[in-house]
Amino acid sequence: MKNLLLFVLIAIGPIALSQTKSKPKSKTADTKFNIQIQGIVLDNCSKKSDIAFGEFHGSDAEVQKMKPNAKGEFTASYWIREPGLFFYRVGSVAQYFLVSPKEKMYKIGLSCNKNELEPLQVFSSTENKAYQEFMSLRKGLTADFENYYNKNLKDTIIFKEFSAKLHDYQKKSAVLAKKYTNSYVANRLVSADQVSEVDLSSIQKLRESYLKRQVFADQKFYNTTLPSLLLDNYLNVIMDKDDSSFTAFEWVLNVASKNTTASQRLQDVLYETINKSKRKDLMRSYIYWAKAHPDRMVNEMTKFKLDGLSKSMVDAQFINITLKDTLGNTRELKDAVTTSKYTLVAIYNPDCSHCIETLPKLIPIWEKYQSKGLKIYTVAAKNDNTLWLNFIKKHTAPGWTNVMEDQTNSSFGKYSITSLPSFVLIDTQGKIVSRMIASEVVTELQKWLAPL
User: Fold this and answer.
1) How many Cα neighbours within 13 Å face the side chain of 349?
2) Residue 374: which of 331, 340, 424, 327 has the closest Cα?
3) Which residue of 114, 136, 351, 359 shows the fewest CB atoms closer than 10 Å?
């Protein structure tokens, strides 16, 4: 098979940034890297105009889309604020590679399979080789941790097995750091991922110390997925399942507050981690913390999400939605809720691949339970009207109420939607009984409907 690759040459040179009086001086060096890219878009990546590059923490405004010529060739130039992950994407699918000032040139291979990005290939890059090996070790640790999700780590024998696996991982990662001395992985990731032998002596000590890492105050620490992995490990494995205390997370939030940028990034990562875990008790604690410390809640988007979630999380009363359907008629969510036993609100985007895949899976459930009191109310993000109508025709069922958002997508904010598609199940009393993502909706919905 023809080997299709995108070769990208990246030249990096550090340039010092001037400090302005309006911004406090950061404890981390404020440097930028100039990135020059030359490449070719492959024949099997059909959405050539959708290929874009950008920083892990860059805003959409800083993302540049490629404008390839007739041969698929293009050039681009970027200024990277910090070393760490850099992404390229086709449509909504992204892949990452590591950018470090210690390497001057990268060759990157991109190919597509059915218009989806295949795993990124980075050639002749020591930094990326180190990063890939580190993430491979981390993947193995995550698999080991999953075996302890439902086990009692207070049991001496079980904890001994668990600590042995963590010790073995740390030993391997230390060898990796020596192999790639002075690399980004050795200096920032391996060192941040270690816990002491004393902390491994008992589950009590490990729980007390696992998140007590001063590195959470370093904004550059958040340029990879490691902070998310650490928080996830603590929440799902190390933390006592019966413990609803927010103390450990509050300690991390206080440490990160030493650096505004670090604090902003941590608050976002923590929200996503807790939201993913579905720990309502911890999310409520996070909401209370944000309200009690308005001066420290510096991530405005996370603050907005928490505020919205406080009004729309499980056990809260539903928030009414009033939008127009395909015929231009006003349709209110409350009309469905008051005339059904359960109403499923499906929030999606007509051109979202996961939405196209997930919503049709609801049709057999709808056909089984519509006569027993199920109603489905779909809310599409503001989009092209023809695209929306085609989506409804192909991927929904007759009898559903289908409306589309206005320009503000206000319903997304009301229900604190952070991923698409998202689903909210409301009972006949108007209480939100479940919030679901694509991978959960079929199983979770059937669980609620089975007693009908």
Assistant:
1) 13
2) 340
3) 114
The answer to whether 99 touches 124, Cβ cutoff 8 Å, is no
Amino acid letter, residue 439:
S
For residues 374 and 337, give the distance between their C-alpha atoms in angstroms, rounded to a whole number: 10
What are the CA-CA distances from residue 360 to residues 184, 337, 350 (Å)?
44, 22, 13
Q: How far is residue 224's CA from residue 99's CA, in Å, rounded to a whole number?
A: 11
Contacts of 288 (CB under 8 A, 6+ apart): 246
User: Are 90 and 72 spatial neighbours (Cβ–Cβ below 8 Å)?
Assistant: no
pLDDT in tens, 245-301: 999 999 999 999 999 999 999 999 999 999 888 888 999 999 999 999 999 999 999
Q: Which pair of structure tokens corresponds to residue 402?
A: 């289908």
Which stretches of the chain drop beneath a pLDDT of 70?
1-31, 35-52, 57-67, 72, 76, 89-93, 109-120
Pairing of the two strands 401-404 and 374-380: parallel
Task: Specify the pairing of strand 73-80 against strand 31-40.
Answer: antiparallel
Q: Which of 203, 193, 288, 202 is nearest to 246 (CA)?
A: 288
Distance in angstroms (rounded) separating the CA atoms of residues 158 and 139:
21
Tokens coding 392: 């409804």
Please name the amino acid found at residue 197. E
Q: Quick one: tokens of 118?
A: 């295949």
Q: How far is CA 244 from the centre of its chain?
A: 23
**Of the candidates 39, 42, 52, 51, which has an alpha carbon nearest to the alpha carbon of residue 3?**
42
Cis? peptide before 421, omega within 30° of 0: yes
For residue 325, the model assigns a pLDDT of 96
Rounded distance, CA 402 to CA 421, Å? 14
Task: Write out the two tokens for 119.
Answer: 């795993």
Distance separating alpha carbons of residues 374 and 369, to the nearest angstrom: 6
CA distance 309 to 304: 9
Model confidence pTM above 0.90: no
What local confidence, expressed as pLDDT, does residue 62 receive? 56
